[in-house]
Amino acid sequence: MTPEIVALGEPLLEFNAMESGPLDKVDKYEVGWGGDTSNFAVAVSRLGRKVGYVCRIGDDDFGQTFINLWKSESIDTKYIIKEKDSFTGIYFISRHGESHQFAYYRKDSAASHLSPEDIPTDYIANARIFHTSGISQAISESACEAVFYAIEVARKADVLVSYDPNLRLKLWDEDRARDIVMETISMSDFVFPSLDDAIYLSGLEDSYAILEYFLEKGPKVVALKLGEKGVLLGTGNQIFQIKPFQVDVVDTTGAGDAFDGGFVSAYLQGYQLKECAKYANIAAALTTTGCGAVKPIPTKEKVDALFLKN
Ligand code: KDG
């Protein structure tokens, strides 16, 4: 049976430096899981919705830890392809206080070999929401084609398309990135850019102007993630300001992915769009209270309780 949400992208094993500073000075890392769309799938599942993940992984131990993670998180793994003689990508996080930078080891990874032939068309066509990201498009040309093909399948079947531009300019050429991301935004229903990505893509500074710029391209909903300033939500004819949810921030990795997962989960629970943004904002804030992309993603019980109180 198809889950209500299907996500497509690249999982990456995470090595998070346990001390601030450059990686040549670090001698302790915490190992965790990452990859924006896999983080999204974990968030959706912890928030009580059924989700399936589509990707390629290597036939290595790191690929196996992902299978173990997804199974333990009740994420459907039916369309995970284990590629023989290939590897699962990894990244290191160097920490600078609350902020961080990624060093990737992913070129030619199994996930970068994704292509349109890997896309399970019926699986996506029978879902309610399909989610993907700019990172999934950046990793290779064939993966980018796979993303566009999956979006077309979703659109033809009236499945909502959810998209996080997640610009990683280390991974692809800037002009190509801008063209592809803007084209994808125009094909999506829900778009979840961070403020930095939105400023870069639009060339604008003002959040309201940015929102208008994106909404004119066609999406039904744009939630501009403003980090410590909360969220600005545009829905075609209305704009809502969602105030930040105060927490003690430890590590912001994965917070944007948890936001996306929180939004679509709340949407499927039947919440109004403004409530979805508020719910997502809480899920994202809680994700910053621990180290790593996946470990701190909260459960439905935790987010529900805070949502009802605030
Ligand atoms: O949002 C967190 C992700 O950026 C992280 O898990 C790594 O997917 C990742 C990437 O490609 O940057």
What report would you give on this structure?
The chain is of the alpha/beta class. 38% of the residues lie in helices and 23% in strands. The protein contains eleven helices and 13 strands. It has helices at 36-46, 61-72, 121-125, 134-138, 141-156, 174-186, 195-202, 207-215, 255-268, 273-287, 300-309; strands spanning 5-8, 12-20, 29-34, 51-58, 80-83, 90-96, 99-105, 129-133, 160-164, 190-191, 221-225, 231-234, 239-242. A nine-stranded mixed β-sheet has the order 5-4-1-8-9-10-11-12-13, with helices on both faces. A four-stranded mixed β-sheet has the order 3-2-6-7. α7 crosses α8 (207-215). The longest helix is centred in the middle third of the chain and has 16 residues, at 141-156. The N and C termini lie far apart (36 Å). The mean pLDDT is 96. Bound molecules: 2-keto-3-deoxygluconate.
Keyword list:
about 300 residues, alpha/beta, four-stranded mixed sheet, 11 helices, 13 strands, globular, binds 2-keto-3-deoxygluconate
Topology:
Elements: E1 5-8, E2 12-20, E3 29-34, H1 36-46, E4 51-58, H2 61-72, E5 80-83, E6 90-96, E7 99-105, H3 121-125, E8 129-133, H4 134-138, H5 141-156, E9 160-164, H6 174-186, E10 190-191, H7 195-202, H8 207-215, E11 221-225, E12 231-234, E13 239-242, H9 255-268, H10 273-287, H11 300-309
Parallel strand pairs: 1-4, 1-8, 2-6, 4-5, 8-9, 9-10, 10-11
Antiparallel strand pairs: 2-3, 6-7, 11-12, 12-13
Bound molecules: 2-keto-3-deoxygluconate.
Residues 12, 34-36, 39, 91, 102, 135, 168, 253-254, 256-257, 293 line the site of 2-keto-3-deoxygluconate (KDG).
